[in-house]
Amino acid sequence: MFVCLCNGFTERQVRECLREDAQSVAGVYRCLGKPQCGKCIGHVREMVEAARSTTRQHACDTTCGGDCVSVAGVAVPA
Predict the structure, then answer these.
(1) How many whole angstroms separate alpha carbon 51 and alpha carbon 53?
(2) What pLDDT score does 54 carry?
(3) How far apart are CA 10 and CA 44, in angstroms?
(4) pLDDT tens-digit series, residues 19-57
(5) Phi then psi for 29, rounded to 5 degrees?
(6) Which of 14, 23, 34, 69 is most buried per CB count within 10 Å?
């Protein structure tokens, strides 16, 4: 689904930027282009927060198979 019609980028492209190195809304826009009308900012913000939440919950997924706990916002093996 398109997130930004002005720049023509999709949810998939936002997720790719978040997986690669974007850590914030500004990082996503550095990756994909400046917001023009601003209508997409809320959706991008939601996607960034969802990615942060997933990263916190599953940061150690490769070492513990997802059986981890969050300690001070960092996932560690249980």
Answers:
(1) 5
(2) 76
(3) 10
(4) 998 999 999 999 999 889 999 999 999 999 999 887 655
(5) -70, -30
(6) 14
How is residue 64 written in tokens?
A: 């513990």
Residue at token pair 């513990």? 64
User: Tokens 């939601």 appear where?
Assistant: 46
Q: CA-CA distance, 53 to 1, in Å (whole number)? A: 21
Banded pLDDT at 69 (limits 50, 70, 90): low
SS3 for 46-76 is HHHHHHHHHHHHHCCHHHHCCCEEEECCEEE
Q: 3-class DSSP state for residue 4?
A: strand
Yes or no: say if 17 and 9 are a contact pair by the CB < 8 Å rule.
Answer: no
List Cβ neighbours of 60 (8 Å cut-off, separation of 6 or more). 68, 75, 76, 77
- The token pair that represents 75 in the structure block: 């996932």
